[in-house]
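Reviewer 2 asked us to include a model.

Predict the structure of this chain.
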Amino acid sequence: MYTFAVRDEGSSVYNALTKLIEADANWKRLKKGNPKANLIFLERNNQPFWKFGHQPGLKQLTNYYRGSEVICRKVKLVSVLAHHFALKNQDIFQWLPESFIIRPIQNLENYAAMKSKKPRALEKVTDERGEFIKAFERHRNSGRGEAWIAKSSTGAKGEGIIISRSPDDLISAIENQPEPHIVQKYIEKPLLLSGQRKFDVRCWVVLDHEYNIHLMKEGVLRTSSDAYDEDNLTRITSHLTNHCIQEEQSANFGKYEEGNEMFFAEFDGFLKEKYGTSMVGKILPQIRMIVKECLLAIKEDINTDHLSYQSFQVFGFDFMIDAAFKVWLIEINGAPACAKRLLPQLTSGIFTMVIKQVFPSDVTCDEQAGDCTEECGYETL
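Predicted model (structure tokens):
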């Protein structure tokens, strides 16, 4: 008999996974705060890793990798990838839009005051507004577009996003905020759906206890309700595809797709009919490469090989596709929600590929992780 405890009771993913586990006779649920369970579903922002792995003979698994937030915070993601590609002597902006870290003056002053106490911890604090201004001029002079987008390091659901062709306006807006921002080259020529509408692509990735990377084969396009308007950057529903923005601010929400969601099969049909290409041929190879590169970039820092407990984690990778079919990484979510239609596939994959591998039962598939990956609708990268 195995035991599990659920600290995060607000997650739709882990609520669904909890139901799967409770239906298995090999499992017993313990109280929320019990640190001695075999399987612990932690909260996104409350992860007491120090409590685990101290009970002799108790095998433990948690649903987050300690330190994984370095690719789930926008500023940290840019810093991590810059370091990763510098070591490889490669360009960081191959598939990440050109990005710069800008910190409000107040934020910089706070760091300066702290630096005398923690000089080594703060030695990598940077502000790249000068570099951003130079990049802005370079793009404008070369005719590659003048629109840039500013995003808070910890922002979610489209909150606090600014799109502008004025670097002064972007920097001024950031100065009034309490935390650092990323200023990123806006993709001005995106691939558009019927109705000339923008979209982004959400892919779910399960990083298992042995650091195998499993990409769920099905994913979703989150679509805009209104036609893309390159000239009007203030018409937010034509530029940002976040569900909450679309549902709250557009009268056309749900007009083209139910819930403004298009799944991969429909998108593949659109690509074949309109452009004579496919996801397999053009899009998925780029997605696979980006996902793998990002997770391998942090493997040395977050893997649990040296620890007395194990981890797994679900990531949501968000992409844009431009008019030339180039895939761009937008951000990575370390605690993603899931489209309702795909939730059974996501949770059954976690249960079969991860939990049952660490805590085997009598299910035939337990000894055959590779076969399980395929049967669950995933591919291992």
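The chain is about 30% helix and 20% strand. The radius of gyration is 22 Å. We have added this to the supplementary material.
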